[in-house]
Amino acid sequence: MLDDWNENLMSYLQRLLPLISSLLLLFISYTPLDFFPVHNIRPAVGFVCVYYWLIHRPDLFNLLSVYFLGLVDDIISNVPFGANIFSMLVLYVLLNSLVRFFNGKPFVITWYGFMIMSFAAFFTKWLILSIYYAQFLPFSMVFFSFMFTVAVYPFLSLVLAFVQNNMIADEE
Amino acid sequence: MKRRKSLFIHFSNIRKLAKKFALVLLFLSAFILMLINKTDTILIEKTSSVVTDVLSPVIDVFVVPAKAVAGVYDYFKELKQIRTDNKKLRDENRYLMGILDRAKALEIENNLLANMLNYTPPPEAKYVTARVIAEEGDAFSHSLIAYTGHINKVKKGQVALSDKGVVGRIDKVGEMYSKIILITDINSKIPVMVERTRVRGILSGDNTPYPKMIFIPLEAELSVGDRIVTSGVAGVFPAGLPIGRISSIEKNNVKVTTFSNLDRLEYIKLVDYNLDDVLID
């Protein structure tokens, strides 16, 4: 009885691991560290996590996970509530139809895919915030954030792959 | 049996329908959140302060280990810098000693003149030093979360300073944690003046590292390198706090480089100038 209970709890925690690992990476990305290259620009960890988990374990990272991650990102950052949620939902919609295409493809292809998808997400965020503030936000900075996020994608996906391969049971 | 089956089919249909519309509903909720943010700032502010208080300790847990990892990288980076920094600091120290002597003399002279004029000095400021636990500085927002809040009698609108000058102001105050808008953020507007010519304007952040000075008179005399300080207009920020230097002057575009390195803030000083009438909590 107790074993069953433990097993259920463990399987429930495993199902939550993609979201928990994404949240932890998100928190770390906001800590004040000195090695960010220029002007405190940080990678958009939320986009990386949404992309990675939707491709590799869409069964464990659903629409609500995307929404929750976006909400937490909105709370920590100082952007208007809803902006990160909106852009992550756009990423979700774009990816939802292409998950099958990316599944099982070499890493380079998924990396290129991330480049295109995250650009759309960055652009959406830039657009809605420009409308919100009624002035265009500096696109060069957005582009730099985008490039930096694309550049760190392999490292972050390594961390997420470690979580996927060592902590989460295979898909049944 | 048949009824149970039809009920089950009915329920699964509702689930399918809900799934289909969940995405639309979530998009809509994000949009509504943005609208509320635009119209009802008090509700958002209070919610944000409470939730920041809940989330910030979690981020705080990661600060020390993350810094330890980053520390190895910093160690090697700083090793290269130490020699040149040392020489620079010695020269700077010699120069500052000279300034200190002059400042002491001026302080005495100032006190004498103030006494003669029956001048009422501004109220003495109270300081709270706070540790920075989270920061962001991309195209969308420039802000910090600091480990201080109502518990330290910190109020919304108070000035945040580094050792070199103004870095921003408190935007949201929680019980233990506060959010600070940096002077480079798009929401930051500070009355400033050029120290040399006393020309006034507004320092407006635009989410780039170089805020711009706007509303400057057409005939204003400005030059690159001029020091920009707070003007004290509107009473929220006291006059004379250092902010930065003019880095470029183009047509209708005066850019300022801040004295404080806003990317490398570990501690900030929150100053209470007893401006309770002006600051709204």
Strands ordered across the widest β-sheet of chain B: 1-2-5-4-3-12
Main structural class of chain A: mainly alpha
The Cα radius of gyration of chain B reads 25 Å
Named CATH architecture of the domain at 189-258 in chain B: Beta Barrel
Stretches of chain B where pLDDT is under 50 for at least 5 consecutive residues are none
Name the structural class of chain B.
alpha+beta
Number of strands of chain B: 12
- Please count the helical segments of chain A: 7
Return the average pLDDT of chain B rounded to an integer.
82
Q: Largest sheet of chain B, if any?
A: 6 strands, antiparallel, barrel
The number of helical runs of chain B is 2
Radius of gyration over C-alpha positions of chain A, nearest whole angstrom: 17 Å
Q: What's the overall geometry of chain A? A: globular
List keywords for this structure.
heterodimer; A: 172 residues; mainly alpha; 7 helices; 0% strand; B: 281 residues; alpha+beta; Thrombin, subunit H; six-stranded antiparallel barrel; six-stranded antiparallel beta barrel; 2 helices; 41% helix
Structure, explained:
The complex is a heterodimer of chains A (172) and B (281). With 172 residues, chain A is mainly α. Chain A has 7 helices and no strands. Chain A has helices at residues 2-29, 45-56, 63-76, 83-96, 99-102, 107-133, 139-167. Chain B is of the alpha+beta class and 281 residues long. Helices cover 41% and strands 26% of the residues of chain B. Chain B is built from 2 helices and 12 strands. Chains A and B meet through helix 1, helix 3, helix 4, helix 6 and helix 7 of A and helix 1, helix 2, strand 1 and strand 2 of B.
